[in-house]
Amino acid sequence: MFGIVRQNVGGARGLSSQGLNSMVRLRPIASVIRNYSSATKEMTVRDALNSALDEEMAADPNVYVMGEEVGEYQGAYKITKGLLDKYGPERVVDTPITEAGFAGIGVGSAYHGLRPVIEFMTFNFSMQAIDHVINSAAKSNYMSAGQINVPIVFRGPNGPAAGVGAQHSQCYGAWYGSVPGLKVLVPYSSEDARGLLKAAIRDPDPVVFLENELLYGESFPVSAEALDSSFCLPIGKAKIEREGKDITITAFSKMVGYALKAAEILEKDGINAEVINLRSIRPLDRATINASVRKTNRLVTVEEGFPQHGIGAEICASVVEDSFGYLDAPVERVAGADVPTPYAANLERMAFPQIEDIVRAAKRVCYRSVPLAATA
User: Fold this and answer.
1) Model confidence band, residue 209 (pLDDT cutoffs 50, 70, 90)
2) pLDDT for 73-113, tens place per residue?
């Protein structure tokens, strides 16, 4: 089920190290949320993330970046390109291969008023630092009775890329989305990436920012408002990417693009699909999802993660709890296969949702095709 062409991105895990020598007091930035206008230019997701980091670092001296190869190498995926030359090694800190070490340093500096942006070369490596992400960052505000804020961002590519095997292909949306105290964001487009990263950096709580490696080089239209340095998007608010009346399709990250393409195919068969870009997994915009289902009366959820205890399962539960009487058909979940990711390209494609899988699921929900059980 996985049919994406590999992108040419460089980088092995970095070995250089710079000290974090100074800590300055927190100077908060006000967030400004604006509405969209017509698109004025195209921007890659990579450039959107880079510009958001650049502008937030320029606006607040408390913001700094730390991780493997973020400085001298300009970032494994070039997200931090140019930042070392502009802000110096005290604010763009190269680290050894020690996720537990630099994640812990980041959390400690956030306790003292800094706003670190910690880059994991892939979120698969965040498992080395998960104690700091969950026990040190997510729980400290509650356990201190609100006395300690932890304004830290953990960001990097999440989910499958291409041909990198089981240990580098997992989606961590459901993992981190289940943890109280964390906010979990999942950008799709360039405006998502730019607006949500700015919001994450300005937020007083720890944010897990799940990007997608295969989207870095993709270009999207960007509105004039999104290019303003004060632009940011609200955390916890989904976006209706395509309005429809016959069926609701929820998706996040790269799967939003697949859902939109599936909707175009469905339109040819007379099925008008509404596509919701979740943008945020925690908090989850249940109101937007339920409002859409109450209009369309049908739901398909799409994700690359494992099906058991997944994001789709949580959405299904929310709809059953709040909008069960509006459903005209069973909910369908389109998810990754319940197996470790295969390395072989043909098996890898079968392990992740494809556009045709979404189309088939939508047709089943609309009773336009034979149910799977009937063909078994």
Assistant:
1) very high
2) 999 999 999 999 999 999 999 999 999 999 999 999 999 99
Q: How far apart are CA 198 and CA 361, in angstroms?
A: 35
C-alpha closest to that of 12 among 94, 69, 67: 69
Strand 183-185 relative to strand 207-211: parallel, antiparallel, unpaired? parallel
Distance separating alpha carbons of residues 368 and 246, to the nearest angstrom: 12
Task: Extract the tokens encoding 110.
Answer: 């956030």
- Distances, alpha carbon 366 to alpha carbons 116, 270, 299, 330, in Å: 47, 11, 10, 10
Average pLDDT over residues 151-177: 93
The pLDDT value given to residue 162 = 86
The residue behind tokens 């993330």 is: 49
CA distance 373 to 235: 39
- 326: which 2 tokens? 């509006």
Cβ-proximal residues to 98 (8 Å cutoff; 6+ apart), any chain: 128
Q: Annotated active-site positions, please? A: 99, 168
Pick from 289, 305, 178, 293: nearest CA to 254:
305
State the DSSP H helix or E strand holding residue 264, giving kind and residue range, or none if neither.
Answer: helix 254-268
pLDDT at position 11 is: 40
Helix/strand/coil for 141:
helix
pTM for the whole structure: 0.87
Count H helices, E strands: the chain? 13, 14
Residues 6+ away with beta carbon under 8 Å from 259: 241, 249, 250, 251, 273, 275, 302, 358
Burial 63-96 (b: 16+ CB within 10 A, else e): bbbbbbbbbebbbbbbbbbebbeebebebbbbbe
Q: What backbone phi and psi angles, to 5 degrees, belong to 325? A: -65, -10
For residue 277 the two structure tokens come to 């870009």
Average pLDDT, the chain: 89
Q: Which residues are within 8 A (CB) of 325 and not within 5 positions of it... i.e. 6 or more apart?
A: none
Determine the 3-state secondary structure of 221 from DSSP. strand
Token pair of 294, please?
């109450």
Is-contact 270 301, C-beta < 8 A? no
